[in-house]
Amino acid sequence: MTVQERLRPGKYRLTVDDYLRLAAGGTFGDRRTELIEGDIWIMSPAHTLHARIQGALALAIGQALPGETGLSLLIAPSVRLSDDTMPEPDLAVAVVDHSEAVLPGRDLRLAVEVADSTLASDLSVKQSLYAGAGIPEYWVVDVASAVIHQMWAPEGEGYRERRTVAFGEPLVAATVAGLVVETTGL
For the whole model, what pTM was predicted? Predict the structure, then answer.
């Protein structure tokens, strides 16, 4: 190995703790960011259509979530999936321990991403991250096609089961008992 090869600049992978310290210090300002496999990702702005669908779906899930499940609906929580990955799904259904500042991945039951400009990465990178962390169910709201890609039964870095539900059809959660979401308002 030459000296030049040994001196080639490397890439520093942040941990979630590093990332949280940077955020607490104001490093990111008003930018919305996520930590994905040690890299800081700048998130797309939440345009009006994205925000409208996120809000409508949050309302629909909140109304449909059975109270006896012990689960809560969260909007854009930070979720620690591993030591170097902390995404912020648009919506999450989770067991909430109020002593935790960041939601541990083990408590996440359903992650939802609204994809108006991020469909490709939500169906590939994010799917791989959520499945790899064992998140039981994952929905991607495909705004352009007016469908929801529903995935469950994580296996490796993917989901073994999936179906597509058109806006206007009821969406029956595969892993959250009793959760049936009306999608007519989307």
Answer: 0.92
